[in-house]
Amino acid sequence: xxxxxxxxxxxxxxxxxxxxxxxxxxxxxxxxxxxxxxxxxxxxxxxxxxxxxxxxxxxxxxxxxxxxxxxxxxxxxxxxxxxxxxxxxxxxxxxxxxxxxxxxxxxxxxxxxxxxxxxxxxxxxxxxxx
Length: 130
Known about the structure:
Blueprint: E1 3-5, H1 6-13, H2 17-25, E2 32-33, E3 39-42, H3 43-56, E4 70-80, E5 84-91, E6 94-101, H4 102-108, E7 115-121, E8 124-129
Helix pairs in contact: 1-2
């Protein structure tokens, strides 16, 4: 299972590391310390928090910007079928859903809590493992 530092989590959530630390200090997202003393967040915990954050802290006027067509974020759900799969990524306030092959999910090692980048072109969404 992948874990994230406060700085990595902040980047994925689209906030400053100070904001991510305050949320962790307030108990909004669970953290633990590794042997070297760094505070880490388990991938599935960060995925759940990113979905909650997008629902509760959304910009009221609905205006958001992205850098070109890349949406770096965290995988929040993977639904596997026999041939196809549905992958959901929370990229800051944006929820991106992509239908890809099961083989692609397995090759990329996509699982809840994994860092990934959704690239949108026209009506197609491509996923890169970050």
